[in-house]
Amino acid sequence: MTGTYRIGRLDDAHVLLTGATGFIGQALLERLLSGHPGTRVTIVVRPRGNGGAADRFRRLLRKDVFRAWREQVGDEAAFAEAERRVTVVEGALDRLEDVEFPGDVDVAIHCASSVSFDPPIDEAFSSNVSGAVALYEKLGEQERPPHIVHISTAYVSSGGQGLVREGRLTHDVDWRRELAQGLAARDDVERASRRPEVLRKALEKAGRDHGKAGPQIAAKDAEEARRAWVEERLVEHGATRAEILGFSDVYTFTKAMSERAVEELWAGRPLSIVRPAIVESALRHPYPGWIDGFKMADPLIIAYGSGLLRDMPGQPDTVMDVVPVDLVVNATLAAAAAPPDEGAEPHYFHVGSGASNPLTLRDLYKHVHSYFRRDPLPESSGRGHVRPPSWTFPGAARVEFALGAGERAANIADKLLGQLPGTERTQEWASRLHKEKRSLETLRKYSDLYGVYTRTAVVYDDRELRALNAALPADRAAEHGFDPAGIDWYTYLEEVHCPKVTAPLRARTGGRRGTRRPNPAALPPGGSPAGGTAGGTAAVFDLDGTIIASDIVESYVWTRLASLPRGRWAPELFDLARNAPRYLLAERRDRGDVMRSFFRRYEGAHVEELRALVAEQVGDALLHRVMPEAVRRIRAHRAAGHRTVLITGSLDLLVEPLRPLFDDIEATHLAERDGVLTGFLRTPPIVGEGRAAWLQSHARERELDLGASYGYADSYSDRPLLEVVGKPHAVNPDTRLFRHAKRRHWQIARWGTHTASRWDALAGTVISHTRPRPVRALPAAGRTASDGEGR
Amino acid sequence: MSRPGFVLEVDERTPPLLVHEGENFRLERLPHGTRVIYPPDSLPGIRDLDGVIRRALLEPHGSEPLPELLFPGMRLTIVFDDLSLPLPPMRRPDVRQRIIEQVLEMAAAKGVDDVELIAANALHRRMTPAELQHVVGDRVFRSFFPQHLTNHDAEDRDNLVHLGDTAEGEEVEINRRAAESDLVVYVNITSTAMSGGPKSVSVGLASYRSIRHHHNVHTLRHSRSFNDPPKSAMHHSYNRMQDLIGGQVKVFTVETTLNNDTFPAATRFLNKREWEWNYGDQAAYLASRRGNSLMTPSMRRRLWHRTEAPYGVTGVNAGAPSEVHPITLRNVHRQQLTEVQGQADVAVYGLPYICPYNVNSVMNPILTMCLGLGYFFNLYLNQPIVREGGVGIFYHPMPNEFHPVHHPSYIDFYEEVLAETTDPAVIEAKFEKQFATDPWYTHLYRKSYAYHGVHPFYMWYWGAHAMQHLGQVIFVGADRSAAARLGVQSASTLNDALQLASQTVGTSPSITYQHMPPLTLASVR
Q: I want to staple A721 with a disulfide (CB 3.0 to 4.6 A). Which of A691, A762, B72, B422 is the partner?
């Protein structure tokens, strides 16, 4: 038993439209302008950015949806007609108090809503419920109540099984209470996030992950983590509240609440509720395949075509209730033209295909698979095309298990990789893992998000809709009809929809790009501070790992061995090996501590003799370990007029051989007494954030423009340094810096092609040198402050 | 009397012949009809070397005996050839040590106490203390190093003297200590016909300002060959400079020549003609090949660079440079010269692991090029062994390897200059000055152990004559990308190389293989 509908004409009506910039809203506006020449339209547009609502409207008219109409009547005429017939009301739906509404609205179509499935609960309520309530209260002030067409979603009734009839929802949830609680949730969560236990945890994690880069960076990260936690909790609030009330997600939950609100607020007045299912690209109007951005199923299609979705947790026989947008528009306008009688029950319509022309998940998969088989997407790497995955529909539990196991494995691998040194191979692993994780994340996201749609056993009945369609006058049925039985899925999916949604992707990845390398010689000249108003350009280099392949321990070994007769090398090396674990542990904790304890080994060395030792032998070893590309780069900067700066934790005496390359050197200075080193640092070591701070103050002194300057470093601990320059480069980065650089699109360089190995450096210099320097350069073997006296 | 050099024509009875390729070598079956140039057998070394040295110092050519040139209170400077000679280094005691010790004894006997020893390394890298010690011996090293045994520093402006310009306008600038000495004793090893004589002081103790007048593209294209001094524009320039120096500085030169005992007993087969290998030689060949393949490149390099040659000395002559050098050249020819009739379409050379500029170092692609197209190609008198427009085929793996300390400017030359052009004249005009005066290279040359910034350019110029003469250059077994960077072709086998060559010289070219090392100087009629 269905209702009987009389469809009038909208030609002389005044239609108020919300959400006109959205997907369905645009299509509705276009249809009203192109198909209902007498209709006046008022649109409510939220001012956004620097342009006002009128600006947004003009931009809207230039969009693809109006193209066919503009071409038909001519650009100028189209714009003029739109200006004449459309009134733009500027205002946000949740703040309508001071907004002037026209008093003669005949039909109000409310299709503004948030279409995100997993927003934080307060945002979901604010856009889906508060907005609707405010709008209807405002419209309630009008003398003659307009006919309200409320656009909802078929999935408001997604729980349960079997056929769902078009009618009032059966739940008894108090929408006012839910609205108030939903909006208040943010305050609660914000308060909770500030509890010391939560903050301590965030700080600890940030310390573990970013401590190497310095406390400020770790703190910043902890605060970011707290904010992210708040968002996550609010999403969680929404999801669980929806679930406990029997809704699939917060979107359908809030849409259901807003239906209840409008039923209550508009009781006794004309109301139609239109519930579209999964709205996709246009079948015919304004042109086949028209779509605005990616809609519900499209990310799935794209992800599938990109090879990221290897299987789906859905049931193959689930009905995928897809409906082209022009059918939704036609149905909405037909409903708008067929108001219920005064005092009668509201009209409800399901706009979908599930009942009369069902498309199962397996059908959808087959069409999409066959489309991508025929016309695969290009690989983003430029290496051929993606092979579309074959789905086996193993069932939700197995997909979930595989997914969970994959995620755990990836997390463990990720942790392990973070501990490994940054070689080319580990970076390749990191890249592969990154890709794998992305694939898993995509799968997880879609599995969670669309799970309800692909697992649901519900079919949305559409007999009211068919009755409405049947009521269309025969002369308008062809153009304004909305019978889903008329959709040929093969044509629609494989020839219209898929080509349209993949087109931007094909345009973007057409051909292999990005193989162009920046010419290393082409450095823009850096003006000297004396010359212009802008500051000079600097090129800042870290030493160990960036310019030379060695570290403070290796240079100590050279110094040590060069100063000792061969007979005493073994005890020295043994002592160093014995202490190695201590240094390594300290390195994990704090680089500054390592330096403090390691440089104690230089206690008692005679400065002048050390200097001579460096000039004769140690400097030679150092130059063996230099990366020629680094030197070329430094020299290129000099040639371009840039100021070259070296920041290093190495001893100032030991970097002497590189002095001619740099304008400024900031190295570690050891305190001395009567020409003998005490083993204590003269100033705190310049590591981590200290480097960034030093550079900033140095830049002020020397009038350097850090934004135009270059930075080169190899370790995650140099992240603060690299972040203060405009052109950061990660050179032979460790795994963490590599990841960070990838994310930030920093330049990554691999240097050291012709660098001599550790052994060659030692064998070619210290070992082959004829005689050691006098032993006084360094004191007795292996004495350090902590164990020196007891030996 | 040793057997003279000869030219073998390959036929069906000829065994595969040894070809050097870097730190390795192979036995290659050459096409029938290929002519192979062998040097004379190694000459016997002088038995009583110390006696012959003493006699040379006491009975010099064109000069008073050395003791008569020495007097108390004089400034005596002993200059000696650096580590670029001989190749491979000579087994201890080096002949230079034996000469220097006798000169020092004579000086001590005459009460000379202002004595300096200087390695004539020109723009080469400094010799390390160990390398100096190897050349001068422990006794001399202990007494003079480091204050009075030094490397020449061509960038120490305070210690260079501009002696004047030649009639051709060539500036002559040499080491101040040598120039202001009462006597310079130059201790030399002439291992090829290009070295020694006028080259010793005018190049070995000079600066870039002076050296650029003969080490340039124009001169090298007109030195045909530079191992034939009368036909070498380079040597004409040396002569003019030496004349100017001779007028102001008293030089007493001691020149020596070596025989062809280039390889030690374990690899004796490398000194022998293939059909005369005995079982021991064949076993040694197989063992060396096997050993080579088991080692990493750097182990292999270290091992080969530790090789010292058991050279015999074939002549020691002292006195005035102009009088001594012709005798020395005759000795070189006696050991190295082989008569060859006519030129071939294709010349084949096997390049060994060492050249003058990679002793205890890495043979980089630029040095490989220099060794092949510079040194080996120019080991001829009268005319090259290959006709103009012919093809040069060289064997060398040419790995893209550089020594970061010894050859820093080479790396940049390879990455920046050769990436743009390989034309020597363009390179000279556009880049030479920039590299030659670069303060960082200068710093490394003076304070570290780097070749001078301009040195890779000279390496490239050495090949300028061959690049002009040859129609095609192919490296067998070379790294493809390195060969491409140098502007030459690479082939994986000799057959492929001949296939490539056929576009220039047809399918049945005449081929000459100059069998080296030991060194062979081809006199082509």
A: A691
